[in-house]
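Lab meeting, item 3. Inverse folding demo.
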């Protein structure tokens, strides 16, 4: 029972950390590249046009946020987990990936963003889990 509670705690903590990193990096990106004034967030065509007009760095900052969030969240989750550290990191990565896919379905993103998210988020989660496993076994 103790390992189950620790597993749940590891995943919840990892998802929270991932979310904090994502929100933090996206906030910085939105300050550097603010959306146009008066943007109607309920108008899909206006959102599609906004994404088309965004500079590459603005869109890239969103992908960066997802990747760094997956890495950090997976690292935290794997550090807390007693066993199956890579598995815990994978669950956290899957949650981040699900959020990224939901975002890309709601607001149209370029194809390279889809490809980047589908490849880089799982890799970042795996890397975070491996990194935490190495740190944990070394201590």
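The presenter then showed the designed sequence:
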């Amino acid at each position: 029972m103790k390992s189950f509670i620790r597993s749940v705690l590891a995943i919840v903590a990892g998802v929270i950390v991932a979310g904090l990193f994502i929100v933090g990096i996206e906030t910085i990106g939105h300050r550097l590249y603010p959306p146009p004034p008066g943007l109607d967030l309920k108008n899909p065509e206006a959102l599609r046009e906004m994404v088309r007009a965004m500079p590459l760095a603005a869109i890239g900052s969103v992908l960066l946020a997802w990747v760094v969030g997956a890495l950090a969240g997976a690292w935290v989750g794997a550090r807390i987990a007693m066993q199956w550290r890579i598995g815990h990191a994978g669950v956290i990565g899957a949650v981040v990936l699900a959020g990224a896919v939901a975002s890309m379905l709601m607001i149209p993103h370029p194809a390279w963003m889809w490809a980047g998210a589908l490849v880089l988020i799982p890799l970042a989660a795996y890397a975070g889990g491996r990194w935490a496993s190495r740190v944990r076994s070394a201590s």
